[in-house]
Each structure stands twice: as structure tokens, then as C-alpha cells.
Design goal:
This protein has 209 residues and is α+β, with helices and mostly antiparallel strands. The chain folds into two domains: 3-144; 152-204, Roll (SH3 type barrels). Helices cover 35% and strands 21% of the residues. The chain contains six helices and ten strands. The strands form two sheets. Strands 4, 5, 6, 7, 8, 9 and 10 form a seven-stranded antiparallel sheet that branches. A hairpin with a 2-residue loop joins strand 7 (176-177) and strand 8 (180-186). Helix 1 packs across helix 2, helix 3 (66-86) packs across helix 4 (95-110) and helix 5 packs antiparallel against helix 6. The longest helix is centred in the middle third of the chain and has 21 residues, at 66-86. It is globular and about 50 Å long.
């Protein structure tokens, strides 16, 4: 497949004008990109080449809006470049990864290939990137404005709200535990940890336990 053909396939998932940069990264680093079904706990991941493969592997959830897709992809490419430089000797989201992520983001920021609100949020985020773009409340809220559906992230709804996951299970949102929330399933009232970046459908504002 030529770069032009690959760019034509990629352009439906990323913001207009960024497909060439994405394809260049895929080619430069020999990346196998897999579009994954929606995952509630993460938007993407990276795996270094194994003994049976010479390719780096990146997955990105295929239901993301173009801006979330791009930033997630670049997040994972930063893991790749950090791995190539430091192997497994560094923290996954330590200072080395943060430095690489800033470099990978720079061309998109310099070329103004993002809407103004996302560009401002990304520039702010670049000062100290977190483990996930959704660990940054401001960037998360700006990106979610461009989602294809009317669902919200669990982090965005109030404590005590009743919500439904894509699996159909219903919960009441409880207290925060780092990037997770301790929630009560209904009707059993059993406690479960649910990721703050889970896409949820709000059923009602408050539900008494």
C-alpha cells in the first residue's frame, strides 16, 4: 500500500490535514496500527516488537472523535520513541516519555491543525502531560465536545448520578479512587471500581441507595 493510499484510509479517523503526519510516523517507525473496539479503561496502547515481529504495534479505539484519536495515537507514538531510546529502563509516563510526547505533538501545534479551543488546551497540557489525556480535566472536557454521541465520561457526571455502561450494567457513581470511581451496581448494590474515562449514559441525576 502506498503512502497516498494509506493516507486516504487514515483521513476518516483523524483531523483534516493531519493524515500525512500520521502516515509518515507509521512508515518511519514501522508501526502496525490496529483500530480497536471501544474500551472503557483506555483509549489506546503500545507494544514493542516481540521475538516474532519486527513491527511496533499501536491500538486506538475506533469510536474516538478525530481529535481524541490523533492525540491518543501520538501519545502511543511517544511510548514508542521513548522505548527506542531507553528500552524498559524508565517509568512508562516519566520525564522521558513526557519529553518525547511534547516533541511528537509539536508539528500538529505549530501547523495549527486543531480547533482553537483544543489547540489552547493542548498547549497547556504540553507543559506537564499526564499518563492519559483524560487525566487532564480541561483537555478531556474540550475533546469530549467533539464526540459523536451524547454520552459523557464518568469523570464528568456528578457524584450520586445513576449511569449505564455500554454493557448494559447500571451503577450509582461513588467516591473517586485516583483515576477510578467506587460505584454501586444496581440492584445488587455491590461495589465495583469503574474507570473515570468510561463512556456512560446518565439515567437520572440522583438515585438514593
Amino acid at each position: 500500500m502506498t503512502k497516498a493510499e494509506l493516507a486516504e484510509k487514515i483521513k476518516k479517523f483523524v483531523p483534516h490535514g493531519t493524515e500525512t503526519y500520521v502516515v509518515d510516523l507509521l512508515a518511519q517507525y514501522k508501526i502496525q496500527l490496529k483500530l480497536n473496539k471501544p474500551r472503557s479503561s483506555k483509549f489506546g496502547d503500545y507494544r514493542s516488537p516481540g521475538p516474532d515481529s519486527k513491527y511496533h504495534r499501536i491500538t486506538v479505539n475506533k469510536d474516538l472523535n478525530p481529535y481524541s484519536f490523533l492525540i491518543t495515537f501520538l501519545h502511543e507514538v511517544a511510548h514508542l520513541t521513548a522505548f527506542e531510546k531507553f528500552k524498559h529502563t524508565i517509568d512508562p509516563h516519566g520525564k522521558e516519555w513526557k519529553s518525547e510526547f511534547k516533541v511528537i505533538l509539536q508539528p500538529v501545534v505549530k501547523e495549527h491543525l486543531l480547533p482553537d479551543d483544543i489547540l489552547i488546551a493542548v498547549k497547556k497540557y504540553m507543559h506537564d502531560p499526564a499518563a492519559s489525556s483524560c487525566s487532564d480535566a480541561h483537555l478531556m472536557k474540550v475533546l469530549s465536545k467533539y464526540d459523536f454521541d451524547n454520552k459523557k465520561l464518568l469523570e464528568q457526571i456528578p457524584l450520586g448520578a445513576t449511569f449505564k455502561l455500554d454493557s448494559g450494567r447500571i451503577f450509582v457513581k461513588g467516591k473517586k479512587l485516583r483515576s477510578w470511581y467506587l460505584c454501586h451496581e444496581l440492584p445488587s448494590k455491590k461495589e465495583y471500581k469503574v474507570s473515570g474515562i468510561s463512556k456512560v449514559e446518565v439515567i437520572e441525576s440522583i438515585h438514593p441507595l
